Amino acid sequence: MSGVLRVWLPRAVAAVAIVIGAIVPFLVSDYDLFAVSRVFAVALGVISLNLLMGFSGQISLGQGAVFGIGGYAAMMLIRYAEWNVWLAVLGAVAICAVVGAIIGLPGVRLGGFNLGLLTIVIAAVFPIVLYRFSDFTGGQAGITLSGAGMASPTMALTDAQWMYLVLFAVLLLIILVLRNMVSRRVGRALAAIRANPILAASMGVEADRLKFSVFVISSALAGLGGAFYAFVLGLVVPESYPLIFSITLLVASVVGGNRSWWGAIAGAAVIVYLPSWFSAAVPSDTSAYLAQLVFAIVLGVCIILAPAGIGGLVARAFAAIVPGRAGPPATASTPSTTHSNRQDIQ
Q1: For 154, phi and psi rounded to 5 degrees?
Q2: Which parts form a coiled-coil structure per UniProt (predicted)?
Q3: How many CA atoms lie within 13 A of 62 on its CB side?
Q4: Residue 21's closest CA among 1, 39, 42?
């Protein structure tokens, strides 16, 4: 009985959550949909960070800059090249994949702390570049669209409802694809790299090649989130992508759980709604500083009390409800299991 519950309870909860998510746009106002759409777009950026940090063990403190590049790329392709929205999204994803490849080539070999330094430099330089090339980026005013970023194709849905449903579908598709990817051979290879890169290499894992591929995919996902985020807001400005934004995405990843796809949505909700709540409660300039202080406190509490984040807490709750719930796949390789692990990874 517990085995059936162990398999079907998480699926039932996920199905209920998806049904509720699908009917939400018909129950709430367009203003609320605007906020939730922001959460979904930011969640794509957090998911890209989870893939990079949680599953491949690489550090990036510049994911916010790649997210911003995606937004600017999409808006500039529409403004200057007159591409339609979907082509602009694909173009932004491709550009961010190229950016990820350029950063990833030296970054994979640098690894660890040095990779973190490289990416934080990119995050710091990105807003400066936007101001320096203001003829193309619009400078402080940024780039705006004359109409809705993603207009509804039918009179039955408002633009806000259409935007929400598109983002909801894209988010579910991305989570499904990544979940399948990390639960198979690629995931086992990444787990081996995280546990012991030397041992992983001895088992035939091409660590540098795999980490580079993950870096490129992660950058493309960040660009996808950035493009949709720009469409939700209807504009891109340099103030949206300072260095602190990359740190904020990192906070969302830790708070949600950097190995939890659903936790990424929770983490994104925290960083989107928390400043709004503070602005409403403390209507002054100090609300922004208070929100950053709370981010720091929440991050510290999560690291100490819940290192697996909200996703980890939910997994523990399931384990308590259904005893015997299977834990995460083993990552360490002992001599007696090395041969079988080599076969699994290869």
Answers
A1: -135, 150
A2: none
A3: 25
A4: 39
Q: Which two tokens stand for residue 234?
A: 């209807």
Model pLDDT for residues 88-104, shown as the tens digit of each residue:
999 999 999 999 999 98
Any idea which residue has 């602009």 for tokens? Answer: 88
SS (H, E, C) 113-159: HHHHHHHHHHHHHHHHHHHHCHHHHCHHHCEECCCCCCCCCCCCCCH
Provide the token pair at 146: 């004359």
List alpha helices for the chain, DSSP H. Answer: 2-23, 30-49, 63-79, 85-110, 112-132, 134-137, 159-182, 185-195, 197-202, 207-233, 243-256, 261-281, 286-305, 309-321, 338-345
* pLDDT one-digit tens code per residue, 5-19: 777 777 888 899 899
Give the type of residue at 262: W
Closest CA to 200 of 209, 210, 189: 189
- Name the pTM for this structure: 0.87
* CA 333 centroid distance within chain: 29
Residue 233 has pLDDT above 70, yes or no: yes
Residue 288 has pLDDT above 80, yes or no: no
Tokens of 37: 């759409």
User: How far apart are alpha carbons 252 and 259 in whole angstroms?
Assistant: 12
Tell me how far apart the alpha carbons of residues 39 and 272 are, in angstroms, rounded to a whole number: 6
